Amino acid sequence: MHFKWNYESPTPEQQKAAEELGAKLNMSPVLAHLLIKREITTESAAKRFFRPQLSDLINPFLMKDMDIAVDRLNDAMGRKERILVYGDYDVDGCTAVALVYKFLQQFYSNIDYYIPDRYDEGYGVSKKGIDFAHQTGVKLIIILDCGIKAIQEIEYAKSLGIDFIICDHHVPDDVMPPAVAILNPKRPDDPFPFKHLCGCGVGFKFMQAFAKNNNIPFSRLIPLLDFCAVSIAADIVPVVDENRILAFHGLKLLNTNPSIGLKSIIDICGLNGRELSMSDIVFKIGPRINASGRMENGKLSVDLLVERDYSSALRMARHINEYNEQRKDIDKQMTEEANSIVSRLESMKHNSSIVLYDEGWKKGVIGIVASRLTEIYFRPTVVLTRDGDMATGSARSVTGFDIYSAIKSCRDLLLNFGGHTYAAGLTLRWDKVREFRDRFQHYVEEHISPQQTEPMLNIDAEIDFKDITKHLQADLKRFSPFGPCNQKPIFCTNRVYDYGTSKVVGREQEHIKLELVDSKSSTVLNGIAFGQSAAARYIKSKRSFDIAFTIEENVFKKNQVQLQIEDIRPNEG
User: Is the peptide bond before 116 cis (omega within 30 degrees of 0)?
Assistant: First the structure.
């Protein structure tokens, strides 16, 4: 895939501001310009950005209903009521349940956790889950990463004498469930200043408030921050402000003293002995936590995350890893089938969106397939499969397009839906799929811009090879953790040449290992271009070309910088 490059050279005013800020911070103007693009324009703001402090976390009692939630939890403990911690079966839900359960279990024993079965119960609060709670004497359910739309289910629980505290981050409807307390920064009446917490983040704020109210030292919460980092990375929420603080310290914990469960996953992934990043969570750790919920039951992941014995955890991690291998096989097969449908349906080439339905696809993997198709075709995508009399689906979006609003526009056809800007889930009668596809497509055509349907590479700065040093790479590392709203900086260098030693590598000869020089110096730099072997012939032709890249540490040669090439294009002079 070739990208359209989006790059604007800094104006003289921006260049001057970057030079002044760089001088104060002992930093190159290029990096100071990256700070300014992130709206960090003062020395003090830069220090807060580079050294996120747990003391800067927002007061949890600013969140609406937090005082009510803490009072109800205190009452439950005081009356020795049975408490159930209930969560969604994805990474965010499982880490949230593990965090809240692990913290409260230190102070209270009459507590259990519950993850609904994706295939038997579906998403969110289920009648089966409430019946389980009732049969086991539960009086309070703390629900995490779901529940904001469970009006009928929570009414049913209320009729059985069970109270709910909802900790969610999905967009609420106008009417909300009759819970005792609803903690959700996306509530329109919620004054909490940061709106982009994940479900685990909301759970953490609840525990922070509970600790504060009960004079429990904040230090008791710190060992749980690795769960926050995992959920923030896997749920793809903005890595700014409150999330940046939680992710920064959670990642530090993940690298130094992770919980037993996460340590076993790190070891199974083969990541031990190297510094973990947010992308390691996204591509290695997160999919394994997700795998049990996709293939069997998410409760297995929570069992692992709260496990205290390493040998037991390792055994469970191996089991979950097997699920992940099965998931990859099904994912590959379904993506190939979906691809062949898209390429076969000529009419889809002119559509602004993709809606696919196949009765044989596995419910637990359709979200991954939707993500793959979005990456390949760069269009908002909904993938649906049959579930009894219903069709259930997952939706994924492209940058800047609100897929939740697109699905909401078809709500009269839907039995259930929920999510946020870039990812959503939905359920409808299977005989309404065609009408949904037409209506969804019409909405997307009306609201999407042409720029949103073409692959775009946002270039942060143009630099020469002589500027790419170990010192620059170390300074760039301070911008991490990376994620939405704080992406890893992408640079470009124009008029570069093959040094003569670049070659195609990989099991299927799909990558290029590069040795390059630019036109302004004799500096030779190593690079790797994954999946771009089609450009090899042009590179070897001795003609100049332009590259867009990120700057990485060479994994095999610790003191060397390596370029990870995002795109290669012929130089047009």
Answer: no
